[in-house]
Each structure stands twice: as C-alpha cells, then as structure tokens.
Amino acid sequence: MLKITLRRFDGTGFRWSLLLSVIVSLYGYGQSVTVTGLVKSQNEQAAIPGINILVKNTLTGTATDAQGKFTINVSPDAVLVFSGIGFLSQEVPVNNRSTIDVTLQEDTKQLNELVVIGYGVQKKSDLTGSVSSISEAQFKKTPVASLDNGLRGRAAGVQVTSTSNQPGGATSIRIRGSNSVNTGSEPLYVIDGFPVFNDNSATAGGATVGPKLNALSLINPNDIVSIEVLKDASAAAIYGARGANGVVLITTKKGQEGKMKIDLNAYYGVQKVSKTLPLLNATEYAQLVNDANGKVIYTPEQIASFGEGTNWQDEIFRSAPMQNYQVTASGGDAKTKYSLSLNYFDQAGIIINSNFKRYSARFNFEKQANTKLTLGSNLSIANTNANQALSSTGGGEGTQGVIVSALDFNPILKVRNPDGTYVLENDRGIPIGNPVATALELTNKSVSTRFLGNVFANYKILDGLEFRTSVGADITNTGEKYYAPRTILAGASAQGIGRASTASGTSWLNENTLTYNKSFDKHALTVLAGFSAQKYTRNLLTSAASGFVNDLLGADNLGSGAIISSPVTNVLDWSLISYIGRINYGFNDKYLLTLTGRADGSSKFGNNNKYGFFPSGSVAWKLSEEEFIKNISAIDELKLRLSYGKIGNQEINSYQSLAGLAGASYIIGDKVMKGFLPGNISNPNLKWETTAQTDLGLDLGLFRNRLNLTFDAYYKKTTDMLLNINVPWSTGFSTALQNIGSIENKGIELGIQANVLTKDLKWNINFNIAANKNKVLDLGPVSQILTGEINGYLKINDPVVIVPGRPLNSFYGYVSDGIFQNGENIAASAQKTAVPGDRKYKDLNGDGVLDAKDRTFIGNAQPKFFGGFTNDFSYKGFDLSASFNYVYGNKILNSTRADLDLPTGQKNSSARVKDRWTPTNPSNTIPRATLNRAFLFSDAQIEDGSFLRLGSLSLGYNFPSSWLSKTGISNAKLYVSGQNLFIITHYTGFDPETNQSGQNNILRGIDSDSYPNSRSFLVGVNLSF
Amino acid sequence: MKKIIYLLISLLATTSCKDFLQEDPASLMVDNSFYKTEADADAAIVAVYDGLNDQSSIFYRGIYLLAELPTDNAECGQGVANANIFALKNYTYGPVNDRIYVLYTAVYKTIASANVAIDKIPSIPFADAKKNRLVAEARFVRALLYFNMVRLFGDVPLVLNQVTSLDEVNTPRTPAAKVYEQIIADLEFAEQNLDATNATGNQGRATKAAASGLLAKVYLTLKDYPKARDKAKLVLDDAQFGLLESYFDIFTPQNRFNKELIFAIQNKGNTGTSNGFAMALFLPRSTIPLAGGGTVAGNSADVPTEEFYNSFKAGDLRKDRTFFTEYDAGGGKVTFRPHWYKFFDPSSIANLSEGTLNFPILRYSDMLLTYAEALNEIDGPSAESLEAVNKVRRRAYGKPLATANAAVDLKGLTKKALQDAILEERRWEFGFENHRWFDLVRTEKLLNILKEKGYTAIKDYNILYPLPQRELDVNKNLVQNQGYTN
C-alpha cells in the first residue's frame, strides 16, 4: 500500500499504480475489472460531481469528479450503488462491463441528508426543531481565520459581529437576539461533542492590552465539514443550562473508506485597509489650533510651510500578506477510518508590526474493534502566535492605541526627529504617544496552545441499543507579554513597563449515553439517556515590573526591573453534572414527536438552587405525506413544526453566590499589613436564567425541490435574569447580583435555497433574512440600569440606558438642534451661557433649562433585520460565487467621530471640521473651535449602521479529470477570491460592523477607534491526490 | 458490558454530586470563613484604614477636588482633561459629576468596612480590651468619614450596620443633626477605648487624642464653642504632641511620625500597597530633567492659583514649603509657574506614584487654631486665643515658639478681625491640605470671598454639594439638595 501511495505522487506512474492496484486486487479478490463512467442527472442531463459510488455490501467506493466521471476497480459481478444528496440511489450490476454511464433521478424528498443534533444525528426530514445547517462548501466560500467568522451571513437569525478586525480577532455572535443583560450571551460551541463556552477573557492572561484574541481561532476552520446551529428550545434543550443562547455544533473531518486521499489546500493573499478616515492636514490643523486658542500659535509663515504634513494613517497601515496551507490525509477500510491534517495559517495585520500565526494538527480516528465495539478519537492541537497592535482606546490621558493615536496626532509633527529618534508625543494639550513608535516598539504578544480532543467507545449491546462513553479534555495555555520601552510615551516616564502572564485552563468531560433505536409497524422510536460531568479549572499568573536599566530584556526578564509589582495568582473553577434524556417518536413517517430534558447541576449557583431542569417538547407534521398534498405536484416537501421548551443560561463567573471578601493592605507601624473587606452581598438563592421559547416552523420544498424554504417564527422570554442590580452606595456596594427581571425576543426567519438553473450552467441562490425584536420587560425594583462611562476623553456617561419597555442597547442622550448662530436670542434659550457657534440642544421638557432631564432615547444598536445571500454559478469546470451579508436599521454610537468632530485643536480632527462654525461660516453641523471640550452626548454622534457588503467573491476553475489523469491528481481547483470588495453604507467610521466592547451584552454598536477592516485579494489552489 | 453499565449507573447513583458542585474558592476569601480569629479582626481593621488611602477617591485627590480646587487656593492646570473637574472649579457642576460620585462611593465603601468590623469583632473570642480598641478604631474612621459627608452634602444616609439583605437598602437621608449625634457618639466611644499612645508597631492607628481633636473640630463646626475649646485644649495639653520648630520638616518623608501629626493616613512607597500619592498630578509637566535622561512625568493637573502664591507675606517660610517654582532633579535646574510642593517625595521622583509621606488629617497647629477660633467666638480676642494663633505664626516665620515676637504676633484685634485673621492663617497654614472649602463654609464666607475674587458662577446653594444623580436614580427615598436639578 505504501509503495502504491508513493508512486501515485509520481504523475507518470499513475497508470502503473493503477495496474499495480489491479494486481493487488487480483491477489485480494480474484478477478477484477476497472470500471469508468459518467453520472448525469435525468432532468437536466448534466454531469453530477460528488456522487458516491459504493460497492454494495462493502465499504469500498469512490466519488465522481467535477466532470461527473469516476473510475473504480471491482469484481465483475459486483453491484455498484450510486448515491448523492438530492438524488435517488440507484443500484447497477457491473456485469463485467468496463464502462458504466448512469443517469440518476432527482430525489424530490431532498431533506434526507443527515444532520448532527446534540448527542446524535437525525435525518433532516425528521427534524422537529429549528436547526440551520451550514455545509463545508458554503462555509469555505470565505477563507476565515476562525470558524465563528465563517458563520457570517450563512444562517438565518445568526448575527456575527467582529469585535476587532485584528488578525486573530474575536467576534460576538447572537442567535435570535440577546437573552440577557449580564450573563454571557455567546452561543455554546460543541466541537465533536465537546462543549466549549467561548469566553475570550477567560483564556486570556491579562498582560497584553487591547481587544482579546479569539479563543476559537485555535480551532482550525479548515478541518470543519459541517456546522449545525441549534436555534429553538427543542433543539437546544439537550444542552440544558448552557443552551439558551443557541448551540453551534461543529463536526470535523472524519476519514472515508477507500484509498488514502491527500488534499492540499493553499492560498496566498494581500490585505489592505478598506477605508481610512479623512482628517485635517497640517495646514488645516494649524488654522484650527489658532482658532481654538483664539490667538496666533502658528504664524501665517509657519502655516504656509506646513503643507500636507504627516498622514499618520498612511504611516501605520500597510499591505499585509496572508497565507494558509492545509494538508489532509484521510482514508480507511471497512473497519478503520482516519483523517490527519496539518495546517499553517499566517496573517499579517494591516497595521505595521502586527500578525497572527497558527500551527495546528488534527487526528480523527475510528476503529471497529469487533462487531459490537467501536473505538475512536478526535484529537487536535494548535498553537497560535500573535503580535497585537495596541488597538484599544486609551481615553484622555496616558497610553492610547495605535489607531486612535494615528487619528489624533498632530499632523504637523514628523514621525522622527532629525536625529532619528521618535517624536515622543503630541505637542498640543493631550499627551498622545507617537503611533508609529507605539506600533513598532511596543511588545504586545500572545502565544496560545490548545489541545482539544476526546476518546470514545461505542458498544452495541443489543440490536438497536448502543452505549457510548467518551472522555475529553480542552486544555488551553496562553502566555502573554507586554513591554512598553522608554522610547515610546507609554514607557518613557516609568523607564520601561513590562508585564507577563500565563493563563492555563483545563476542562475535563465525561459523557455516557445509551441510545435505543427501534422501528416497528408504523412506529419509529429513538430514546436517548445519558449522564455527563464536566469540570473546569483555570490558573492565572500575572506579574509586572518597571524601571528597567535599558530596553534589552523587558518582559522576558521582569526581575531586572527596579520596581516589581506584586504578582497576581488566581484560581477559578466550576463544575457541571448533567442528566440527559430524549425521545424521538415518529408515526407513519407523518407525525413526529420529540421530548427532551436535561437536568443540570452547576457549581456556580447558590446552595439553595444548584440544580435546574430544562424540558422541551416539539411536534412536526409532514403534510407532504398526506394524500391531499401528495396530489399537488409542485409540492415535494411540506412540514409544519411546533416546539416549546425552557433552556438555561449559566454563564456568570464562579463564586458569585458567595459573600466574597476583597483584599486590602495598609501601613501600620511602618509595615505592610494585610486586610479584608466585604466585596459583595451573598445570594444563596442565585440560579440560572431561564429562557422559554416557542417556535413555529415550516419547511417547504417546491418544483422537484428546486426551491426550498424554511420559515420560523419564535417567541422567547427570559426570566430570572441575573442582574447586577445597582444598589445605593450607602450599602457599601455598587451592585448586587440577583435573579430579577425578564426580557423577550421575538422574530421571524426565512431561509431560501433555490436551484435557479440546473443544466450546464448552474445557478444556486442561498438567501436568508431574520428580524428580531428585543424588549426588556422587567428589571424588578430598579427603574433603569445605567451603563457607565465609555469615552475617557469626552467622558460620555451612561450613553446606553436599560429600561423596561425598551430594547437592550438603546442609546440615551440629548437631541441636537444645530448650532447657535449670530444674532440668535441665546438668553431666551435653554442654554443661557452658550455663545454663537456652540451646539444647540432641544429642551425636551420645556423647562427653559438644558439639563439631564432633556435626554431621551436616540437610537438602538440592534438591527431591524439582517442576513446574507450567496449566488453560486458554475459552468463546466468554472464556478463563481458571491456572498453578501447585510444588516439594516441599527444605529452606531460613533465615539471616534465624537472625538474627531470636536474642534479643540488639542488633537487632530476630521476633515469635516473644516466646515466648523465661524462668524463668517454659519455652519449648522460642526461647532466653533474652542479649547473647551465640554461635551454632551447627543444624536449628533449616532449614525445609521445599515450596510450591504460583498463579503466574498470568488472565481474558480476545476481542471477536468482528463487533463489530470496522468498527473496523479484526482481533483484540482485554482481560484481567485476577494473579500470585502465593497460595502454600501452611510456609516462614516471605518466599518459599520463594529463592536468595541467585545462580547458585552449592553454596550453594543459602539465604535471607539476599533481596528479597521481590510479588503483582501487572494489566489488559492485545492489539490486532491 | 452490561456489568459495566450497571456499575456505571450505580456509581452515578451513589457518587455525591453535592461535593462535586460545592464551591470552595481557592483564591477568594469568603465571609463565612472569615471574622473568626483575632488576626481576622486585625485584618478587618486594616481594611478600614486602607479605605482612607486612595489616590483618587476619599483623601488625597478625592477631597482635594471638592475642598481645595473649588476655592481661591487652586485651579485647573494644563493637565486636567476631565470636564467634570473644570466644572468643580467653575461652579458649573451638577449631580452628574464623576468626581463627586467617586468620593461619595469610596466613603460609603469604607463606612461599610467599618460597619462590618463594628458588627463582627465583638463576637470573635479574644481579649475585650483589644476588641474595644479595634471597634473604637473603626468607629473613629466612621466618624471621620461621616463628618466629611455631612459637611459636603448635608443630610446623608446614615448606615451603621453591615448590609446583609437586599430588602433594606434604600436608606433615606438622615437629618444632619442626627448624623452629628452619631459622629459624636462614635468619637466619644473612641475617646474612651482607643489607646492613649500607640505602642511600637501600632503607629498610625487612631488614638484618644485623635478622637478628641476630631471632636473639637466637630463641635467647632456645630458652633458649640465651649466644647470645641475643651476638646482642643485636651489635645493641646497632651505632652505627646506639639509644634515642630520647622514647618518644612512636618512634611518630609524622613519625618513621617512627628509630634505635630495627631492623626495621619499612613503611606509608604514601593510596598505594593495601593498608594495614596499620585505626585504626577501636581508636579510640573515634562519640564524637570532627570539625571538618567527623560523628564519628571508630572502632569500639572492640580496647581495653586497665582493669587494664593502671592498672598504669602515676606518671611513666611510656609510659602516655600507649600509651593515651588524651580527644581533640580539631577539633570539641571529649571523654573516653572508655582506648583504644589508640600507632598513631594524627592526619592520617588522617577516613579511618582510611589511616594512615601503620611497625609495629615489632624495637626497640632489645627488644634491651636481651632482653640483660638473657639475662644474668640466665646469671648472675643484674648491673650490666650492670640497666643494660640501667634504660636503658629512664630513657627511660620522661623521665630522661637514660646517667645512673643512683635514682628509677627497679632495683637489688638477686634473679634471680627481675629476671625478674619484666623481664617487667613488657616489658609496659609493648611494650603494643599484640603481645609479651605470647609473653613470658608464653616465661617460662612465661601460665597463672599469667591465672588469678590471673580467667581461669578457660584450660587448660594453651592455651600453643599449635590448627591450623585446615580444615587437618586437607584434610591427613590433620596431627595436632592436644594438648587440642584440633576
């Protein structure tokens, strides 16, 4: 076998190997023939790629290539079984023939493909819950660094938002809206059966500054073959106290029976920042400074000499390469299946000196030990290496990110002094570090390793009764280093600041399930019962030092700093015990019933409420099996689904029910003494949040399944919300965590899949749209939840307020009303101390005074609807695919713009400020120049965030197998693709898809100097041997 | 295989899942396991004191921004970025002001620490005498904080016990008179139970004299002058305390425990304690070269007014302790506009947040001037009241303390003139010690003096600060101070 494999790499030896394998076959099976042929569809008479061909009663087989052709060695009396999604299977006896052309009939009951559900698989046609499936082909249309990015626009009701576009950056995903105020609302990811809550801050050590890296970027997306999103209570209740936010099931590539297949996928591309912000140039800025100061700071001669000055954005952005190489070897025989993959991904950031690299390996293996026992494993390990550009916003003073510094830095200044040293800081009022120096000299580095895997045994106890047990582990280790050298502002005064941290997390899981499958008469029954235990422990160690002799050692030798900060260690753990049960019952293949229940015991909750039970039930009616529908020829599939259930959310930090104490230290008797003080109020009744969801769904297949529709309408109500309720400070505490209040989400989703053209020229459309309405119903004793300050420079306080009757993420501020003009009667206005050129606000309560009572709700960050659509065309070997995604009706608080539109001259401003109010330029949009940065948050900082984006456009060519037959390559595809090629939006910031506050539920839709998006072009090749 | 399954099922049934789900935090101290031993009691008191030691909230800058900045003593330097700070200076602040909020929250957090100690320590088994002393320390700190609160805000919620239930959190404002009653009760308990002298290893704890001294100030504020006089006298007669010969030496890091400091917040750099001083806030900005290259990382946020600087009379040695206008940090001498100098620790010039210097809360000279003020209010100027002021003055001008000195001594003043003289003396004596606003309000001169000096925006109701809007939003039982409409 090895020899054959080796020779198969040698293109000219291909025929030899064929011959050799024929000989091997002869030895093995006696007489054998090589059969070739073409598979076509009956309706369209077009070649069909990807049809599986199996020798009946064996696991030997092959598949058709892109031209619908196949070759297989079989015994002359074998029977070949042709099968493929969307076609009826056909058995063809070989009868000693060497050429067999087959015409397959389209299967009008297309929904027979298997989908992964929690703890099992099910025929798509038998689903009673709401499950979106994303196939490998769809998922891989856009090259992504992490799997969550691949979900964007692919499934109705699943909104993916980048929290940072830095390489390895994180996303925040909401499935059917936010269910919670405080509790983690990211979906649960289940990777080959292993549940992972993607809390990016839990896996981070804390030494680095800026947006957290994405823990999911340690899962190689190239290994994924299917993604299922469980959206309703029926589907997700099997995950109990962790299912309320929806569940994303990830299945990685398993070996297929047959000869070893080697797949090589590679792409190389270049990214550029997709948009820069227009700012004032040096000349314009100098005039602003003079205006704001009301005196000559720069003389006319100086101003005349400034010209354009330094374009700081140009200084920090660059064309950045990205590349990905994946090699997969997979195969197996009747009893053994394996898949081994190696991946290298390297993405440079569009900001100088930032990058992200991943090395990963996966080995999935399964062995049928005997007729009853199957053993196997899914093992993966990955290592990532990220140099993060400092992209946090730093507020008014101190350390600021590279992006905000580039926007704010005085354009008159140069990057370097004449002696070659960096210009240290902005010279006009606000100390801002030189962005180029920060980008190049600051160390902000993160190295992570993640092992995720499980081993399992499947035992067939009786016919239809199977026991499965698995043990798995998810081990993450992240080391971070930060060093601000003395050459940049952040480290100048402290003579170097260094930090290092290590975070290591281990999650152990044992799951045991019994599955019973039985069909009799018209009844079909599947019963699942199981038990699972999971335990997570995380250890954190952080240390810091400053005052280094020079910048040579930095964070690699913190002990060499003069001032050592106390080290921080921290241990966090939680455990979960679960009992699982599910019954699927079908009658006459028409009426389907699913009952699911999970009892979860969680360590995170109060002693009075450790356990919770999460039941769900659903029914489905296959109308298309009824005679009165069967007669309607246009309808192939028609199914109604109804589900109801309660699922939980336990994503709070550990130990919250306990009255924790906080540490203190004080000098008594000239010595350090340690003390403890109350940190929070205990709550022994603390429990999970519960989301009750009703879902009504309809699946419809029309015109020989050329048009498929999936429609869902749902209502979700979350009760017992875990709220940090503000309590009066006179208690000594700011907030207390309580199960209080409720929130609802209701919405509709529509997915359409249409095969518009199916002949030689194929055209498929995948379209989805979802609308979700969120409303806070009750906050218990508090009338509102305030959200604190978001902009360190402008001190925007409570820009988002949560009140019952309003959706989450509602912006709250003043209503602007233009600018006070000369001659206006200011004394009669509500802003009596204003002068012409100041921004005017509406005195909403009409009391003649502009004060906090005049604030109102001025927009919401949640979209009215969102979704995506993909057009796929193929003709002969060419394919063209365009994926769009869109969001409509959301508002963005453009905090970056709020800064940039304020003409203080203390830092640079947007080009819009050229149109600022002056006595001779009665602008109504930008106020007068003044050093004063007193600022009221109003709708002037709120923008429409709607957009339509061409997320990816790719053109590929599949080389015909006739060309390849002599090369040893079975499939070859060459493609070019572009990402983020255009976006239609009114948004003035870098990109409307922004969420600076990461996975936070409350502060969404806030753009504060986030890492800009990029546009990329790449060329790739996929080869199979 | 069946056996294995039975085994598994029976295992599941018998394994105690309760233990598996029990939270036993490894790195978090919890209430249930604490407050059990004498050492725990000590630690609870450490936390109470530590609440006072914070760069931005209660003392140091927290009180500076409310009691020094909004007076004729100070102004916003070029390093001030926060609009709320300008608002405090310009008397345009309202209930939504993050600096008022920060002080309010930190004060109540520390009061809560004190309340827990007061509630829990009595039932911990150890010697009663020490128990009473520890409780007295907590009650002293609680009184100190409520005294600030009642002066800054008037009526305030008076919480005296640990809050353990979420049902009774919306405490309304208690009339100021009642708050004062509690302050006096706490201080009287403290006076009874605190040590007269701190034993070695206990320096920095409140003592009997601290309680008496604070009582004197409380009574002075309440215009109960005889009691103010008596309590001040008690401290003045305590042989442990007295004026230092040199005003300069009161504030040197080497001299952190001196006889002039009756109670001070303890502060020592490079100890890993969250440190009180943020020298960067008041040191000149990037102008003083360091010996090893670079400049002192001052920020010039908190600076004195030129008027205050110039108000010092020739020969007053306090001027050069309160301010500086030139400095050589080893990289060459530079000059600059007047900056605060009093709480400057030259040894941490390269690491400005690690200064070592105790922050005085009660000084001997404060007792002298309190005594003089009380006497003057009772009987008008007398030899005794003038002598108390003159001691302070003689020291200020470098004269022998006990010897009358015609050049600096006050004499022949009317009652009103002495009132004015004491207020002025306090200004010079306590510059940058955050007394000015309290002194101006106590003497009912805040409005007049500031208006005279061009503070046009000040309004009658500015003699109290507004309660933070956040508190009114959360606690519907609270009513805002008159004049402030959120």
From TrEMBL, chain A:
GO terms for cellular component: cell outer membrane. Residues 903-923 are annotated as: Disordered. Residues 356-981 form the TonB-dependent receptor-like beta-barrel domain. Residues 124-247 form the TonB-dependent receptor plug domain. It is a multi-pass membrane protein. Coiled coil: none annotated. InterPro entries: Beta-barrel_TonB, Beta-barrel_TonB_sf, CarboxyPept-like_regulatory, Plug_dom, Plug_dom_sf, TonB-dep_OMP_SusC/RagA, TonB-dep_OMP_SusC/RagA_CS, TonB-dep_rcpt-like. Its main location: membrane. It holds the Pfam family Plug. NCBIfam families: OMP_RagA_SusC (TIGR04056), SusC_RagA_signa (TIGR04057). Belongs to the TonB-dependent receptor family. This is TonB-dependent receptor.
Automatic annotation (TrEMBL), chain B:
Residues 19-220 form the SusD-like N-terminal domain. CDD domains: SusD. Keywords: Cell outer membrane, Membrane, Signal. Signal peptide: none annotated. GO terms for cellular component: cell outer membrane. Residues 331-484 form the RagB/SusD domain. Belongs to the SusD family. This is RagB/SusD family nutrient uptake outer membrane protein. It comes from Dyadobacter flavalbus.
